[in-house]
Write a structure and sequence with these properties.
Layout (H helix, E strand, L loop, with lengths): L2 H11 L2 H10 L2 H18 L1 H4 L20 E4 L2 E14 L6 E24 L3 E13 L20 H12 L1 H24 L1 H16 L2 H10 L7 H31 L3 H8 L4 H9 L4 H24 L11 H6 L4 H6 L5 H23 L5
Antiparallel strand pairs: 1-2, 2-3, 3-4
Amino acid sequence: MSKKTRSKEDYYLASQWTLMARKLKKHKLAKISLLVLAILYIGALFADVLAPYGLDTFDSLYKDTAPTKIRCVYEGEFVGPYVFKKVKTTDKKTYTVNVYEDTSEYYKIGLFEHGEEYKILGLIRSDIHLFGVKEGSNGGTGAKVFLFGADSLGRDIFSRVLLGSQISLTIPFASAIISFFLGITIGSVSGYFGGAVDMVIQRIIEVIGAVPQIPLWMALSAAIPAGISTIKIYLYITIILSFINWTGMARIVRGKFLSLKNEDYVMAARLAGVSTWKIIWKHLVPGFMSYLIVSLTLGIPGSIVGETSMSYLGLGIKSPATSWGVLLQEASSVTDVATNPHKLIPIIFVTVTVLAYNFLGDGLRDAADPYK
Protein backbone atom coordinates (compact mmCIF):
# COMPACT_ATOMS: atom_id res chain seq x y z
CA MET A 1 0.00 0.00 0.00
CA SER A 2 1.43 3.36 -1.04
CA LYS A 3 2.05 6.15 1.44
CA LYS A 4 -0.58 8.34 -0.27
CA THR A 5 -3.23 5.61 -0.11
CA ARG A 6 -2.44 4.89 3.55
CA SER A 7 -2.71 8.63 4.32
CA LYS A 8 -6.15 8.80 2.69
CA GLU A 9 -7.27 5.71 4.61
CA ASP A 10 -6.10 7.21 7.92
CA TYR A 11 -7.99 10.38 7.09
CA TYR A 12 -11.33 8.74 6.34
CA LEU A 13 -11.09 6.22 9.21
CA ALA A 14 -10.08 8.79 11.83
CA SER A 15 -12.61 9.89 14.46
CA GLN A 16 -14.07 13.38 14.42
CA TRP A 17 -12.02 14.36 17.48
CA THR A 18 -8.80 13.24 15.77
CA LEU A 19 -9.66 15.26 12.67
CA MET A 20 -10.50 18.28 14.85
CA ALA A 21 -7.13 18.05 16.60
CA ARG A 22 -5.28 17.81 13.28
CA LYS A 23 -7.05 20.84 11.86
CA LEU A 24 -6.65 22.85 15.05
CA LYS A 25 -2.88 22.33 14.89
CA LYS A 26 -2.85 24.16 11.57
CA HIS A 27 -4.64 27.21 13.00
CA LYS A 28 -1.77 29.52 14.05
CA LEU A 29 -3.87 32.05 15.97
CA ALA A 30 -5.60 29.28 17.91
CA LYS A 31 -2.25 27.73 18.90
CA ILE A 32 -0.85 31.10 19.99
CA SER A 33 -4.04 31.79 21.95
CA LEU A 34 -3.81 28.41 23.66
CA LEU A 35 -0.23 29.22 24.68
CA VAL A 36 -1.24 32.67 25.98
CA LEU A 37 -4.10 31.19 28.02
CA ALA A 38 -1.79 28.50 29.39
CA ILE A 39 0.66 31.19 30.56
CA LEU A 40 -2.14 33.23 32.14
CA TYR A 41 -3.59 30.26 34.02
CA ILE A 42 -0.17 29.06 35.19
CA GLY A 43 0.48 32.62 36.38
CA ALA A 44 -2.81 32.57 38.29
CA LEU A 45 -2.05 29.15 39.78
CA PHE A 46 1.34 30.26 41.11
CA ALA A 47 0.47 33.93 41.63
CA ASP A 48 1.68 33.94 45.24
CA VAL A 49 5.13 32.78 44.11
CA LEU A 50 5.36 35.20 41.17
CA ALA A 51 4.01 38.25 43.02
CA PRO A 52 6.68 40.07 45.07
CA TYR A 53 4.10 41.48 47.52
CA GLY A 54 0.82 40.46 49.12
CA LEU A 55 -2.64 41.98 48.69
CA ASP A 56 -2.42 44.02 51.90
CA THR A 57 1.17 45.27 51.49
CA PHE A 58 1.36 49.01 50.93
CA ASP A 59 3.79 51.90 51.27
CA SER A 60 2.40 55.43 51.33
CA LEU A 61 5.67 56.76 49.90
CA TYR A 62 4.90 55.00 46.64
CA LYS A 63 1.22 55.86 46.22
CA ASP A 64 0.25 56.62 42.60
CA THR A 65 3.87 56.17 41.47
CA ALA A 66 4.62 55.14 37.89
CA PRO A 67 6.34 51.80 37.15
CA THR A 68 9.71 51.62 38.88
CA LYS A 69 12.66 52.47 36.68
CA ILE A 70 15.10 49.56 36.70
CA ARG A 71 18.73 50.38 35.98
CA CYS A 72 21.78 48.17 35.43
CA VAL A 73 24.73 50.61 35.42
CA TYR A 74 25.74 52.53 38.56
CA GLU A 75 28.37 55.24 38.31
CA GLY A 76 29.75 53.77 35.09
CA GLU A 77 29.93 50.20 36.38
CA PHE A 78 27.58 47.36 35.41
CA VAL A 79 26.11 45.95 38.64
CA GLY A 80 22.99 44.17 37.31
CA PRO A 81 19.35 45.24 37.69
CA TYR A 82 18.78 47.57 40.64
CA VAL A 83 16.47 50.30 41.93
CA PHE A 84 16.81 53.32 44.17
CA LYS A 85 14.95 53.85 47.42
CA LYS A 86 12.38 56.62 47.75
CA VAL A 87 12.77 58.97 50.71
CA LYS A 88 10.58 61.72 52.07
CA THR A 89 11.71 65.05 53.46
CA THR A 90 9.80 68.04 54.83
CA ASP A 91 10.86 71.60 54.12
CA LYS A 92 10.77 73.32 57.53
CA LYS A 93 10.28 76.73 55.95
CA THR A 94 7.44 75.97 53.53
CA TYR A 95 6.20 72.78 55.24
CA THR A 96 6.04 71.04 51.88
CA VAL A 97 6.70 67.32 51.60
CA ASN A 98 9.17 66.18 48.94
CA VAL A 99 9.54 62.58 47.77
CA TYR A 100 12.58 61.71 45.69
CA GLU A 101 14.97 58.87 44.88
CA ASP A 102 18.07 58.52 47.03
CA THR A 103 20.84 57.83 44.52
CA SER A 104 23.55 57.44 47.17
CA GLU A 105 22.75 53.74 47.53
CA TYR A 106 21.44 51.15 45.07
CA TYR A 107 19.37 48.04 45.80
CA LYS A 108 19.86 45.03 43.56
CA ILE A 109 16.92 42.92 42.35
CA GLY A 110 17.42 39.24 43.06
CA LEU A 111 15.66 36.03 42.13
CA PHE A 112 13.96 33.77 44.67
CA GLU A 113 14.08 36.27 47.51
CA HIS A 114 12.45 35.84 50.91
CA GLY A 115 9.32 37.90 51.54
CA GLU A 116 5.82 37.55 52.92
CA GLU A 117 4.66 34.08 53.86
CA TYR A 118 1.98 32.34 51.81
CA LYS A 119 0.77 28.85 50.93
CA ILE A 120 1.59 27.32 47.55
CA LEU A 121 -1.71 26.02 46.11
CA GLY A 122 -3.13 26.64 49.59
CA LEU A 123 -1.14 23.71 51.00
CA ILE A 124 2.62 24.32 51.34
CA ARG A 125 3.92 27.19 53.44
CA SER A 126 6.67 29.27 51.84
CA ASP A 127 8.08 32.79 51.78
CA ILE A 128 10.12 32.53 48.56
CA HIS A 129 9.07 34.92 45.79
CA LEU A 130 10.28 34.86 42.19
CA PHE A 131 12.06 38.19 42.62
CA GLY A 132 12.53 40.86 45.22
CA VAL A 133 14.79 43.70 46.35
CA LYS A 134 17.94 42.82 48.29
CA GLU A 135 19.73 44.91 50.88
CA GLY A 136 21.29 48.13 49.62
CA SER A 137 24.93 48.49 48.60
CA ASN A 138 25.56 50.14 51.97
CA GLY A 139 23.38 47.73 53.98
CA GLY A 140 20.18 49.78 53.81
CA THR A 141 16.65 48.35 53.52
CA GLY A 142 13.19 49.48 52.50
CA ALA A 143 13.48 49.82 48.70
CA LYS A 144 10.58 48.59 46.55
CA VAL A 145 10.13 47.50 42.96
CA PHE A 146 6.74 48.07 41.34
CA LEU A 147 6.81 46.75 37.77
CA PHE A 148 3.36 48.16 36.93
CA GLY A 149 3.46 51.07 39.36
CA ALA A 150 1.39 51.54 42.50
CA ASP A 151 -2.24 52.41 43.23
CA SER A 152 -3.62 55.25 45.37
CA LEU A 153 -2.73 53.37 48.58
CA GLY A 154 0.80 52.45 47.51
CA ARG A 155 0.03 48.81 46.68
CA ASP A 156 1.88 47.00 43.90
CA ILE A 157 -0.34 46.75 40.81
CA PHE A 158 1.74 43.91 39.33
CA SER A 159 1.14 41.74 42.40
CA ARG A 160 -2.54 42.64 42.48
CA VAL A 161 -2.96 41.81 38.77
CA LEU A 162 -1.45 38.36 39.36
CA LEU A 163 -3.47 37.69 42.51
CA GLY A 164 -6.59 39.18 40.92
CA SER A 165 -6.26 36.77 37.99
CA GLN A 166 -7.04 33.92 40.39
CA ILE A 167 -10.58 35.28 40.58
CA SER A 168 -10.97 36.89 37.14
CA LEU A 169 -9.86 33.73 35.32
CA THR A 170 -11.53 31.09 37.49
CA ILE A 171 -14.97 32.56 38.22
CA PRO A 172 -15.85 32.95 34.50
CA PHE A 173 -14.45 29.50 33.70
CA ALA A 174 -16.36 27.84 36.54
CA SER A 175 -19.59 29.68 35.71
CA ALA A 176 -19.21 28.79 32.01
CA ILE A 177 -18.83 25.09 32.89
CA ILE A 178 -21.93 25.22 35.12
CA SER A 179 -23.88 27.11 32.41
CA PHE A 180 -22.67 24.54 29.87
CA PHE A 181 -24.16 21.55 31.70
CA LEU A 182 -27.21 23.50 32.86
CA GLY A 183 -27.89 24.64 29.30
CA ILE A 184 -27.44 21.13 27.88
CA THR A 185 -29.77 19.60 30.48
CA ILE A 186 -32.57 22.17 30.21
CA GLY A 187 -32.22 22.55 26.43
CA SER A 188 -32.34 18.79 25.88
CA VAL A 189 -35.48 18.45 28.01
CA SER A 190 -37.10 21.32 26.12
CA GLY A 191 -36.24 19.98 22.67
CA TYR A 192 -36.79 16.27 23.33
CA PHE A 193 -40.12 16.40 25.14
CA GLY A 194 -41.59 19.48 23.44
CA GLY A 195 -45.20 20.46 24.13
CA ALA A 196 -46.03 22.21 27.39
CA VAL A 197 -42.58 21.54 28.84
CA ASP A 198 -40.93 23.23 25.87
CA MET A 199 -43.32 26.19 26.06
CA VAL A 200 -42.65 26.81 29.78
CA ILE A 201 -38.87 26.58 29.41
CA GLN A 202 -38.82 28.89 26.40
CA ARG A 203 -40.93 31.50 28.19
CA ILE A 204 -38.50 31.39 31.15
CA ILE A 205 -35.57 31.89 28.76
CA GLU A 206 -37.35 34.82 27.11
CA VAL A 207 -38.06 36.47 30.48
CA ILE A 208 -34.40 36.16 31.55
CA GLY A 209 -33.23 37.45 28.17
CA ALA A 210 -35.62 40.40 28.27
CA VAL A 211 -34.19 41.80 31.52
CA PRO A 212 -31.22 44.15 30.96
CA GLN A 213 -28.03 42.61 32.36
CA ILE A 214 -26.93 45.41 34.69
CA PRO A 215 -30.28 45.66 36.57
CA LEU A 216 -30.32 41.86 36.72
CA TRP A 217 -26.79 41.84 38.20
CA MET A 218 -27.86 44.48 40.71
CA ALA A 219 -30.94 42.52 41.73
CA LEU A 220 -29.04 39.26 42.17
CA SER A 221 -26.09 40.95 43.91
CA ALA A 222 -28.48 42.60 46.36
CA ALA A 223 -29.45 39.09 47.49
CA ILE A 224 -25.86 38.41 48.66
CA PRO A 225 -25.74 38.86 52.46
CA ALA A 226 -23.48 41.63 53.75
CA GLY A 227 -20.28 40.83 55.60
CA ILE A 228 -19.77 37.33 54.23
CA SER A 229 -16.35 35.81 53.49
CA THR A 230 -14.50 36.16 50.20
CA ILE A 231 -14.96 32.44 49.45
CA LYS A 232 -18.73 32.76 49.78
CA ILE A 233 -18.74 35.87 47.58
CA TYR A 234 -16.76 33.84 45.02
CA LEU A 235 -19.42 31.12 45.16
CA TYR A 236 -22.32 33.59 44.84
CA ILE A 237 -20.74 35.42 41.88
CA THR A 238 -20.22 32.08 40.12
CA ILE A 239 -23.88 31.18 40.67
CA ILE A 240 -25.05 34.60 39.45
CA LEU A 241 -23.07 34.38 36.22
CA SER A 242 -24.23 30.78 35.69
CA PHE A 243 -27.86 31.80 36.20
CA ILE A 244 -27.56 34.50 33.55
CA ASN A 245 -25.52 32.66 30.90
CA TRP A 246 -27.18 29.25 30.53
CA THR A 247 -29.99 30.45 28.26
CA GLY A 248 -27.91 30.72 25.08
CA MET A 249 -26.59 27.17 25.39
CA ALA A 250 -30.10 25.87 26.13
CA ARG A 251 -31.45 27.34 22.89
CA ILE A 252 -28.61 25.85 20.84
CA VAL A 253 -29.24 22.39 22.33
CA ARG A 254 -33.01 22.70 21.89
CA GLY A 255 -32.61 23.52 18.19
CA LYS A 256 -30.33 20.51 17.66
CA PHE A 257 -32.71 18.18 19.51
CA LEU A 258 -35.70 19.33 17.45
CA SER A 259 -33.85 18.34 14.28
CA LEU A 260 -32.36 15.07 15.59
CA LYS A 261 -34.99 13.51 17.88
CA ASN A 262 -36.93 11.95 14.97
CA GLU A 263 -33.88 10.45 13.26
CA ASP A 264 -33.92 6.70 12.56
CA TYR A 265 -31.23 5.83 15.13
CA VAL A 266 -33.19 7.63 17.87
CA MET A 267 -36.39 5.81 16.92
CA ALA A 268 -34.47 2.52 16.94
CA ALA A 269 -33.16 3.25 20.43
CA ARG A 270 -36.69 3.95 21.64
CA LEU A 271 -38.02 0.70 20.16
CA ALA A 272 -35.14 -1.16 21.80
CA GLY A 273 -36.32 0.10 25.18
CA VAL A 274 -33.42 2.49 25.85
CA SER A 275 -34.26 4.97 28.62
CA THR A 276 -34.95 8.60 27.77
CA TRP A 277 -31.91 9.99 29.59
CA LYS A 278 -29.63 7.42 27.96
CA ILE A 279 -30.93 8.43 24.53
CA ILE A 280 -30.26 12.08 25.39
CA TRP A 281 -26.75 11.66 26.81
CA LYS A 282 -25.49 8.62 24.85
CA HIS A 283 -27.05 9.14 21.41
CA LEU A 284 -28.08 12.76 20.86
CA VAL A 285 -25.64 14.99 22.77
CA PRO A 286 -22.42 13.29 21.50
CA GLY A 287 -23.62 13.88 17.93
CA PHE A 288 -22.94 17.62 18.18
CA MET A 289 -20.57 17.79 21.17
CA SER A 290 -17.88 19.50 19.06
CA TYR A 291 -20.23 22.42 18.41
CA LEU A 292 -21.10 22.62 22.11
CA ILE A 293 -17.41 22.84 23.03
CA VAL A 294 -16.99 25.67 20.53
CA SER A 295 -19.98 27.46 22.08
CA LEU A 296 -18.46 26.94 25.54
CA THR A 297 -15.12 28.40 24.44
CA LEU A 298 -16.80 31.42 22.86
CA GLY A 299 -18.99 31.88 25.94
CA ILE A 300 -16.13 32.16 28.46
CA PRO A 301 -15.05 35.67 27.27
CA GLY A 302 -18.58 36.91 27.96
CA SER A 303 -18.33 35.56 31.50
CA ILE A 304 -14.93 37.25 31.96
CA VAL A 305 -16.34 40.59 30.85
CA GLY A 306 -19.38 39.98 33.07
CA GLU A 307 -17.29 39.32 36.21
CA THR A 308 -15.04 42.30 35.43
CA SER A 309 -18.07 44.54 34.91
CA MET A 310 -19.72 43.39 38.13
CA SER A 311 -16.57 44.01 40.17
CA TYR A 312 -15.98 47.35 38.42
CA LEU A 313 -19.51 48.47 39.33
CA GLY A 314 -19.03 47.31 42.92
CA LEU A 315 -21.50 44.43 42.56
CA GLY A 316 -18.98 41.59 42.68
CA ILE A 317 -15.69 41.03 44.45
CA LYS A 318 -14.86 43.74 46.96
CA SER A 319 -11.67 44.82 48.72
CA PRO A 320 -9.60 43.45 50.46
CA ALA A 321 -10.02 40.68 47.85
CA THR A 322 -9.22 41.76 44.33
CA SER A 323 -9.94 40.99 40.71
CA TRP A 324 -9.24 42.79 37.45
CA GLY A 325 -12.58 44.56 37.75
CA VAL A 326 -11.71 45.83 41.24
CA LEU A 327 -8.38 47.11 39.91
CA LEU A 328 -10.14 48.96 37.10
CA GLN A 329 -12.25 50.83 39.64
CA GLU A 330 -9.09 52.87 40.27
CA ALA A 331 -9.21 53.94 36.62
CA SER A 332 -12.82 55.14 36.73
CA SER A 333 -11.84 58.79 37.05
CA VAL A 334 -10.71 60.53 33.85
CA THR A 335 -8.51 62.89 35.88
CA ASP A 336 -6.87 60.00 37.70
CA VAL A 337 -6.22 58.15 34.43
CA ALA A 338 -4.74 61.29 32.84
CA THR A 339 -2.23 61.69 35.68
CA ASN A 340 -1.66 57.96 36.34
CA PRO A 341 -2.11 56.08 33.03
CA HIS A 342 -0.39 52.99 34.48
CA LYS A 343 -3.64 52.20 36.33
CA LEU A 344 -5.10 51.08 32.99
CA ILE A 345 -2.64 48.17 32.78
CA PRO A 346 -5.21 45.63 34.13
CA ILE A 347 -7.44 46.29 31.12
CA ILE A 348 -4.65 44.94 28.90
CA PHE A 349 -4.94 41.57 30.65
CA VAL A 350 -8.74 41.54 30.25
CA THR A 351 -8.43 42.38 26.55
CA VAL A 352 -5.69 39.81 25.88
CA THR A 353 -7.63 37.06 27.69
CA VAL A 354 -10.89 37.79 25.85
CA LEU A 355 -9.12 37.93 22.47
CA ALA A 356 -7.26 34.68 23.21
CA TYR A 357 -10.51 32.88 24.00
CA ASN A 358 -12.17 34.32 20.89
CA PHE A 359 -9.30 33.26 18.62
CA LEU A 360 -9.27 29.80 20.20
CA GLY A 361 -13.03 29.60 19.69
CA ASP A 362 -12.62 30.57 16.03
CA GLY A 363 -10.02 27.83 15.62
CA LEU A 364 -12.29 25.26 17.26
CA ARG A 365 -15.21 26.42 15.12
CA ASP A 366 -13.19 25.83 11.95
CA ALA A 367 -11.90 22.51 13.26
CA ALA A 368 -15.41 21.37 14.24
CA ASP A 369 -16.09 20.80 10.54
CA PRO A 370 -12.99 18.72 9.73
CA TYR A 371 -14.23 17.62 6.30
CA LYS A 372 -14.55 21.19 5.04
